[in-house]
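> call design_seq(struct)
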């Protein structure tokens, strides 16, 4: 299986295939329910969780409104601390910058901390094309890399694999990447973790270049923060001589004090821990301690365009906790690969179409990959109203594509396609704006209800293939309301529509 998402089908087709995989559904159900329950218990311990959630939302919204100012301050602080800042408008530019920085060291291999940003831009593939081998050091990312697989979860990229599958991957693939797995390797968690630890140890001690992302960047001090649970991040951030961090511009927070909120909400929302086992913070370079050279690559790659959308920009609040994935009934059944993006689940359904646009079949289908149940909003530690953004993006898809800016105004350009849906919406608007027409239509529908089909023909089959049309009531609501004097004489109304047949 290829490591990228190029050529993936649209979500409905990919999901249809995924739900047929009973083992995948079993793995996902077990893992998401376990994480969900632990998170709920961890959050319940905090009496002021609602206040922390609101504080996180406000900090993020303030930062996004003044992001230009905070980014310039961040650049000044990083530079003053001995680091070098690079600006990347898109994935191609970011890959060129990182590749050139690694080549300048003369090295042909790097160790990596788990990073969504580097997955987003396809950095591993770009480095490989340049003759540079990138070694993933997070346990789950290692499993994905060894299995020539794709990540399917933000927090647990190998959530779709069970222990027996992981053991088989280690046995068959580890030797090609370094130290082989023990011949008698079992599928016990301790044995698998030890095999990974031994395999990675030599890479940590040998590598001269480390590559990371960051959970947060503090503009006030130029400090970067990585939170993780295994210690591999700490090794990658401190042992190499050169450290290159690729970070989305939205990861900025104004002050050191702002971290207080997120270092409480992120661990509980993601790993259900009160505090991450490893919270690594670094500010530039220091003599005799840590990397001698530090480079920060600030990644745009669609984020500025997303900021232009007043509704959609709230997706940039995301702190990558994955809580929304673990409660989503659609993700639980379809898995992460069906989303065709490194950002799966509810957050991916609103983030990917904004970063990449809605021109492709994958991205145009993602806003519809939801039941709009709202569970994702309830658990989000920065109160992203994902259902609101999903509906907003659905409107964008129907109207024809990404937003464009004309001066200070964001304009949605109608495009070809979706003609039938647009015509139906126009007809509905015309009817709803004329009470007499609407009343006549409702009465006609009630009187001819026995003739109505239970399934729709043509394009409507996509809807009724998995559900039946609701039965038409015996009389329109407004007629019932008038006949019963506003519902006060309900004894005159039939209790069951079947009685009126």
């Amino acid at each position: 299986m290829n490591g990228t998402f190029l050529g993936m089908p649209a979500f409905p087709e990919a999901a249809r295939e995924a739900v047929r995989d009973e083992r995948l559904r079993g793995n996902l159900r077990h893992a998401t329910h376990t994480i969900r329950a632990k998170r709920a218990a961890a959050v319940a311990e905090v009496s002021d969780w609602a206040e922390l959630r609101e504080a996180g939302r406000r900090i993020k919204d303030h930062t996004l409104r003044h992001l230009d100012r905070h980014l310039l301050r961040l650049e000044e602080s990083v530079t003053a601390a001995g680091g070098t800042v690079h600006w990347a408008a898109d994935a191609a530019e970011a890959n060129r910058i990182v590749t050139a920085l690694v080549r300048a060291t003369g090295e042909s291999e790097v160790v990596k901390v788990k990073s969504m940003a580097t997955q987003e831009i396809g950095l591993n593939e770009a480095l490989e094309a340049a003759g540079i081998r990138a070694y993933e050091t997070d346990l789950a990312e290692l499993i994905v890399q060894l299995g020539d697989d794709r990540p399917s979860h933000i927090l647990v990229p190998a959530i779709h694999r069970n222990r027996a599958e992981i053991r088989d991957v280690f046995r068959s693939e580890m030797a090609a990447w370094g130290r082989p797995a023990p011949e008698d390797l079992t599928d016990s968690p301790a044995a698998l973790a030890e095999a990974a630890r031994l395999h990675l140890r030599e890479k940590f001690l040998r590598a001269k270049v480390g590559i990371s992302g960051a959970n947060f960047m503090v503009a006030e001090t130029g400090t970067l923060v990585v939170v993780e649970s295994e210690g591999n991040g700490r090794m990658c951030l401190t042992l190499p001589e050169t450290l290159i961090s690729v970070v989305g511009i939205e990861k900025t927070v104004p002050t050191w004090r702002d971290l207080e909120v997120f270092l409480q909400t992120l661990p509980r929302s993601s790993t259900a821990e009160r505090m991450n086992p490893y919270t690594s913070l670094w500010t530039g370079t220091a003599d005799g301690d840590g990397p001698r050279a530090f480079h920060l690559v600030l990644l745009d790659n669609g984020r500025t365009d997303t900021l232009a959308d007043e509704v959609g920009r709230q997706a940039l609040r995301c702190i990558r906790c994955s809580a929304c994935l673990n409660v989503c009934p659609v993700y639980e059944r379809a898995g992460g690969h069906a989303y065709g993006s490194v950002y799966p689940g509810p957050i991916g359904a609103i983030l990917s179409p904004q970063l990449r646009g809605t021109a492709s079949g994958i991205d145009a289908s993602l806003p519809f990959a939801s039941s709009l149940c709202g569970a994702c909003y309830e658990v989000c530690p920065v109160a992203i109203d994902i259902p609101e953004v999903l509906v907003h993006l659905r409107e964008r898809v129907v109207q024809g594509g990404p937003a464009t800016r004309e001066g200070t105004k964001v304009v949605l350009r109608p495009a070809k396609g979706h003609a039938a849906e647009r015509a139906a919406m126009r007809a509905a608007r015309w009817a709803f704006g004329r009470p007499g027409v609407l009343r006549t239509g409702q009465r006609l529908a009630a009187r001819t209800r026995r003739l109505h089909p239970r399934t729709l023909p043509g394009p409507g089959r996509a809807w009724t293939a998995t559900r039946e049309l609701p039965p038409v009531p015996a009389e329109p609501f407004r007629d019932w309301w008038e006949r019963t004097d506003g519902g006060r004489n309900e004894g005159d109304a039939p209790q069951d529509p079947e009685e009126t047949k």
